[in-house]
Each structure stands twice: as structure tokens, then as C-alpha cells.
Amino acid sequence: MGVVVRSVLWGSGIGFVLMGGFMTIGATAAPGNTYNDSVPLTVVVIIISGVLLGGIPGSLIGLVVGLIRRSIKRSSQPAPAFPMVPQHPYDMWSEQVERCAESARRVNAAVQTVPASAAKDWLQRISEQLTKELDDVRGIAQLGRALGAVDSQHPVYQRLLKAAHDFKQFENQVGRVALQMFDHPELDEARTHLELLEKQLPQLSA
Is the pLDDT confidence value at 7 over 90? Predict the structure, then answer.
């Protein structure tokens, strides 16, 4: 039961008891009071007066008190503590690895748009091989971290930059080939382009 409801009930009860008590005292103590001639009528009048003059005003007072108490209770409660998000230091190696991974994802997405054909199956295999090249890229990054290299001119970092550049260039070439395959999906038409792409794959992480 909430604070406001409890306050309303307490206010109503206290008001009813107080006003009922006053009315009872008045009805029994006043000389010549007509209420003494009829006990049931006196009880009814006391109850009605207690409700109207005590219970209802007491309920309103209790409502105000309950709202104030609830407001104070809420303001006193400490704000919920949110777990601190760990702040990872800047990692120049992960940035370049992510560039390569993003290119691989875009190549795979581009391949999915090509009409079904034997040429698309070949292009799909090339895309899968590109994804495998990411293992070599991650290995280069691991080597740089192991050496503690922080200089962008370090040979390991320069090799990683070249891999990211090659991935991007390969992504662009796949896009051009995929566009040509929309008009010429036949394997004979796309064979030259696919062979060229396949030959470039081993050079990406070199």
C-alpha cells in the first residue's frame, strides 16, 4: 500500500473519530438535548456527522500529507548507479583491422546482389577468400601490439596500412565487376575479370 493511500486512510479515520467523539460528547452532555430521547437517531447523526465533518476533511488533509511524504521520500532516495563503461584506450591497430573487415563485409554484400549464375558462384568464392585474408591482417596487428609499436612510421604499421588500402581497392574492383555481371552474367563474359580479381587476392596482406 502506498504512502498516499495510507495517509488518506489515517486522515479519514482520525477525522471521523475526533468529530464522532465531539458529537457524542455534545449529544450526551448537553442538558435538554433532543438526541437523548432516541439513541438510534443519535448514533446515526453521530456517524453521518463524523463522516461529513471529520472523515472527508481528514481524507483531504491525509492526501496532502501523503503527497508531501512521497515527494520527500523520492528526493531522499539515491539516484540509481549505472555501471561505468570501461574506457578503452585508442588502438591504432584495431582501427586498421576494422577498415579491412568493413571492406570484406561490403564485398560480401555486393556479391549477394549479383544474379545467380556460375560467375556469381566464382565471385562468392573470391569473397570468402578475402574474408580469410583477415586472419593475416589480424596477425599483423598482433605483431605490432607485441612489439609495443606506437609510431605510425613503424614498418609493421605501414604494412597494415597497405593491407587496409589494398582491401579498399579490391572492394572497389569487386563493385565494378559486380556491376558488369548484371548485364553479362555469363561465365565467359566475366571470366577475365574474375581471374584478375583472384590473382590479386594473395597480395592483399603482403
Answer: no
> Which parts of the chain are beta strand (E)?
none
Residue 114 has pLDDT above 80, yes or no: yes
| Structure confidence at residue 196 (pLDDT) | 86
**What separation in angstroms does the CA of 152 have from each of 72, 120, 139, 163?**
57, 39, 17, 14
- Per the listing, cell 592483399 goes with 204
Cα-based distances in Å from 107 to 70, 103, 147, 164, 168: 59, 6, 32, 14, 10
Count of other CB atoms within 10 angstroms of residue 1 = 6
- Enter the C-alpha cell of residue 124: 562468392
User: Does the pLDDT value for residue 158 go beyond 90?
Assistant: yes
- Return the closest-CA partner of residue 156 out of 90, 97, 88: 97
Put simply, whether the predicted model's pTM sits higher than 0.85 gets the answer no
Describe the chain by its helix, strand, coil percentages, rounded to 5: 80, 0, 20
